[in-house]
Amino acid sequence: MKMPAKQKKLYDWYISLNYEYVEELPAKGVILLRKGEKVGDAIYWSYVTLYKNGNVKNGNHLK
Fold first, then answer.
1. Sign of the CA dihedral 34, 37, 39, 41?
2. Which of 29, 44, 45, 46 is 20 to 30 A removed from 63 (C-alpha atoms)?
């Protein structure tokens, strides 16, 4: 997986925070990561989208 330096730096940082790789969307130039935390009987998922220009978008989902 080849990525620009800004995106690679963010990727390495989020992986060090125990986020896991979900998928890469090469056509959009984004990488999706997630981290799950158990909350009672549910799992609280934190999602991160890393863009090739260095931007980051965060999202959460309770399942």
1. positive
2. 29
Tokens at 25, concatenated: 């969307």
> Which residues make beta-bridge pairs with 46?
35, 60
Torsion sign across C-alpha atoms 31, 26, 52, 8: positive
The pLDDT value given to residue 60: 82
Within 8 A by CB and 6+ apart from 45, the residues are 34, 35, 36, 60, 61, 62, 63
Mean of the pLDDT values across residues 13-25? 96
In what helix (H) or strand (E) does residue 30 lie, and over which residues does it extend?
strand 30-39
Residue 23 backbone phi and psi in degrees, to 5: -165, 165
46-59 average pLDDT score: 94
